[in-house]
Design a protein that fits this description.
The chain is built from four helices and no strands. The protein has helices at about 10-20, 30-50, 55-75, 80-95.
Amino acid sequence: MPIYNKLVRDRIPVVIESTGKTFSKRILSNEEYIKELKNKSFEELEEYVQAENDKDAIEELADLLEIIHALAECHGATIETVEEVRQKKAEKRGGFKEKIFLIEVEDE
């Protein structure tokens, strides 16, 4: 029996049951949950980096966004609050639309 030891989406146990397979699971503490969401974010980011086409890239970005929604909630915020912070930072420092790649800055 393969051992996964990782956070999965809420409906994965139902999907596994529908195949007739048995499994074990447990509910994480809040601290464990945040840690595993962070681990999952690295996993999904790596899958995004490895995506070879736009369709797969969008799938992985959707997974990352789901994790961001969950993490925002863990930190007592809504995704709207996160978006407000993002917008304020973009107004102050800009976004990444201009594709600027900084080479170096001269020290005095």
